[in-house]
Amino acid sequence: MRTDLLDKISGPQDVKHLTPQELVELCKEIRTAFVAFGKEHGGHIGSNLGLVEASVALHYVFDSPQDKIIFDVSHQAYAHKMLTGRADAFTKAEQFGTVTGFTNPAESEHDQFVLGHTGTAISLACGMAQARNLAHEHGQTTDVNNVVAIIGDGALSSAVAFEGLNNAGCQQGNLIIVLNDNEMSIAENHGGMYGTLAKMRESGGSYQPNLFEAFGLDYRYVEGGNDVNALVKAFQDVKNSEQPIVVHIHTTKGLGMDAQDAEHGVREGHCERNHWQDPLRDEGKPLGARKYYGQKVMDHIRARLVGEPNVVVISPATPGSNGIVPEFRKAAGSHYVDTGITEEHAVSYASGLAKAGCRPVVATSATFFQRTFDQLQQEVSLNGQPVTLLSFGGGMTGADNTHSGAFDIAMFGNIPGLTCLAPTSASMLLDMVDWSTSLENTKPVVIRVPGNAVLQADRGGLDETPVNVQAALHARIEGHGQPWSRYVTRQHGSQVALIGLGDAHVWAGEVVDALAELDEPIHASWINPLQFSSLDESTLRALIQNHSLVVTLEDGQLEGGWGEKITAFYQNELPGMPMHVLNFGLAKAFTDRVPVDEQRKDNHMTTQDIVNAICCYLSGETRA
Amino acid sequence: MRTDLLDKISGPQDVKHLTPQELVELCKEIRTAFVAFGKEHGGHIGSNLGLVEASVALHYVFDSPQDKIIFDVSHQAYAHKMLTGRADAFTKAEQFGTVTGFTNPAESEHDQFVLGHTGTAISLACGMAQARNLAHEHGQTTDVNNVVAIIGDGALSSAVAFEGLNNAGCQQGNLIIVLNDNEMSIAENHGGMYGTLAKMRESGGSYQPNLFEAFGLDYRYVEGGNDVNALVKAFQDVKNSEQPIVVHIHTTKGLGMDAQDAEHGVREGHCERNHWQDPLRDEGKPLGARKYYGQKVMDHIRARLVGEPNVVVISPATPGSNGIVPEFRKAAGSHYVDTGITEEHAVSYASGLAKAGCRPVVATSATFFQRTFDQLQQEVSLNGQPVTLLSFGGGMTGADNTHSGAFDIAMFGNIPGLTCLAPTSASMLLDMVDWSTSLENTKPVVIRVPGNAVLQADRGGLDETPVNVQAALHARIEGHGQPWSRYVTRQHGSQVALIGLGDAHVWAGEVVDALAELDEPIHASWINPLQFSSLDESTLRALIQNHSLVVTLEDGQLEGGWGEKITAFYQNELPGMPMHVLNFGLAKAFTDRVPVDEQRKDNHMTTQDIVNAICCYLSGETRA
């Protein structure tokens, strides 16, 4: 792999002296490096391959960091990273992983924000540009000159991007919005504006209605989005422009893949394969929890679509990573709706479907449900609509800091009227989906797709929580309105009770085993709460009889979470009773790609930590 | 006031038989009734006056409830309510207040949803229409025929509305989006698309770029938005249309006010006066907490704008209700930005401003900050940008169920890296704003504007928490990074410590007083926590010395809130210590216009309730 030119680029200043032909060569080197990197390491390769030329042209024309370049979502910033002193992380295998997959100001002064959710770049750019305007107004200097936002056509469908366009359309001063139009969102584009974008491309930018002019913005079209010198020309023309402008560039996602990639990649219509992150690396590996459980649910639902017009699966543009495979989507027909990257619409839309008698399932990541927190509360829960939210990647994972699932219990669990379920096996997951999408259920439900600890237990043949769900369902519906309102005790013991939620249910079992193996064995109870929207007060009260310590264990943030509610229950409802509660879970903090085992260590919640804490408490109690 | 025709309308069927002239007369009667109602009772009169004819025409043409009519935000549904059996609530003074200000399925089968936040009607309508499509596809009957969403030009700026338009633009089957364009948002319109809407109006709908056609939608313009027979014609033309269409109607907000109203209302450019809710009723009354404290903050900030280019106030279209008066806005110039109804953009935009060195203040309601939960977490907190969120109407209020502030502690308080302050006096509020918008502060801060309990104490001359903030600020910045990380003990006592947050700080003081007046007086400690983002562990540990009971009191939902964290602190950090904690706050539930006193009773948190609980606990402790 040749990296002659690349080796000479230590920062943007080294790009500026290249000849037009050298710019072309540099792009080739970068593209070749990405393909090799993608095969070995994985990553969002498709979008980065499309943006090679634009990144080079941006750094050739603009003067970062005085000119601010803001990448929306920022997973398409690999070339930008290579041009700003971080090429080794993509060209040298031993340095793969030394930079994040997103922009990060801690890595470089050329990165403005840590971004991993879509659509905010225009708003952020408006803000930086307005700060410059204010300084100028006061006759003060500022380190902000041009402000450039780069946003993809897929990300453009997300709500906040439109709010940003609308405000950019009435803002004064320099602001350059580069629309990276690769004709393709994560899976495919959905929405009426994509027809308009296509006609704008076909007409070379002259088509009316022009989406951006409708927002009051100036507009320029560049067909050669992978022609570095055409881009240089276009960017030079708009540099220092004195009012906001959209530069619409037409790029090709995945450009430069070889035949081997193409089999797996964008050209064969499989572009989403987890955003074409891992074209080859994961071949043959067993599926992770997200895709495994997602496929299970979709297979299960698929059988019902023939006779049940009311079952609808909605994906806000993330089908692939959640096991909603192309075969399912094809078979489901109108029962599957990809709304584009539009969590707010997806959840409101589901509420509308439910109001009209359907039982919709909205499937996306816990971290993306954050986008629609208000609609979860208002359109769904306040209105009591039987929408099922299938939440992926919640709890403790090794995710980067923009995709953490650790906040999901606090987000969902404190919304009135929302039943929050945490299944701990595939069969329980399917039972819960069956119930929540049945006409028997009339209220909103979130189901937290299990994580890898549960999956490992499932695969290892661990006995699942022995609950006859169908019987429980019918017995409990009569009494409680939802079948998972009671905890299930998997092992009856005494003295200490361990209650573990989600993946932490498995870990709680390991603590129970470890306690039984102590020199002075403790035969603890092991309880599966199944849900985190209400407490099973009856079970908690009964523990008083022969337990003095309850230990809660959850795979998410403690503050605002679930375990501390149990602590408060005993203190407030049974103030005279000698029950003590210890809570284990995550500290309130952002973590960035920290493996789960390490997070457990950092938060003093390994099996040994918990056994120690229990013994310590009990010995103190004995002494007292 | 004549109500001859209105008296004969018991439901939509009675509208359908009227002659064109009678339709005109009916509109006159409704308009007259609104003006009288508004003067006596208050309400969102301006938008309702503009929509009288459209409401009558909708019920003349469409067949509710088989045709579904969905009002966005739904505070413009008064005429709809009058036409669907609820006229007395607007014409008979003794029945004012018997219906809510929003649509409500519990009131009528003609109301589809409870809605109070903007922009979701298009998505909800897409969902109901798609449910109908699916039933048809399966050859099944459905009770959904036409689906009609009515959305104002102001609401159209909110993110989710664009997501909805984009999806409507590629959906099949009947779906009618009525754009109620009164040229006016709550205060005034902001954003590039409003220039386009103006040109579309001026051209009679022929102007290009056409905003709605850009989203792939059919389009029709009706200039006579207050001409009931013109509207009847337009709606008849689009009824049963087989693909989505936007009907853009040009209406006049506040049409029909008399001279007395006009002095106070929309024609004089004061249309926002709390959405022109209470044109006369509140004249001369003292300001409530929102406007009182909002004005205090703005007056305070105003003095700094001359010399500090970095201070910016951002309002997502709700200046009036938060004390951001026209005089301030005028004086602030570019330092005040109304972004339109765009909470997500407003918060991302603030992050951009902060990144470029500014200290922006985003001022809106707690309930509207829900819309931007994800940006609060990602763009602001994860990125550590020094944005100040000035949150109004948080905590316990008598608000309707769509505007409750009771969830704010759980929403803000569990986000990593976000400092959450709860001042308990005007001077403390200003100190906190001073600090958070100073260059000394480098992190995001939410400041919860106090509620009416604090305001009453402020006005009553109650000694405020005796903290020398300036001294504390400088002393503490060095040690802790933020000056309000330590609790302030207002009264040192023993045995029992009361810690009350926000308005509940005042209530905690009342409990302390009541305990001192018991036959066997208890001299309790009274502590002001000042904030809810972290615990002052040092103060909590010190209480162990001479207290056995800590009582927390908060003016919001207990679950996910603040007090239960203190309970968990003692159980986990000081497990061997005999400290008990009782928590008082709200149950996890939606409430609808329940007065604060009643909420305190319902949640067993009146002064007497708390005194009783304390005595009960202490007597049990004595017995044990």
UniProtKB/TrEMBL annotation, chains A, B:
One of its GO terms (cellular component) is cytosol. SMART domains: Transket_pyr. Gene3D superfamilies: 3.40.50.920, 3.40.50.970. Keywords: Isoprene biosynthesis, Magnesium, Metal-binding, Thiamine biosynthesis, Thiamine pyrophosphate, Transferase. Its EC number is 2.2.1.7. GO terms for biological process: isopentenyl diphosphate biosynthetic process, methylerythritol 4-phosphate pathway; terpenoid biosynthetic process; thiamine biosynthetic process. Its cofactor is Mg(2+). It is an enzyme of class 2 (transferase). Pathway: Metabolic intermediate biosynthesis; 1-deoxy-D-xylulose 5-phosphate biosynthesis; 1-deoxy-D-xylulose 5-phosphate from D-glyceraldehyde 3-phosphate and pyruvate: step 1/1. Residues 291-457 form the Transketolase-like pyrimidine-binding domain. InterPro entries: Dxylulose-5-P_synthase, THDP-binding, Transketo_C/PFOR_II, Transketolase-like_Pyr-bd, Transketolase_C. SUPFAM superfamilies: Thiamin diphosphate-binding fold (THDP-binding), TK C-terminal domain-like. The keyword Heme does not apply. Belongs to the transketolase family. DXPS subfamily. This is 1-deoxy-D-xylulose-5-phosphate synthase.
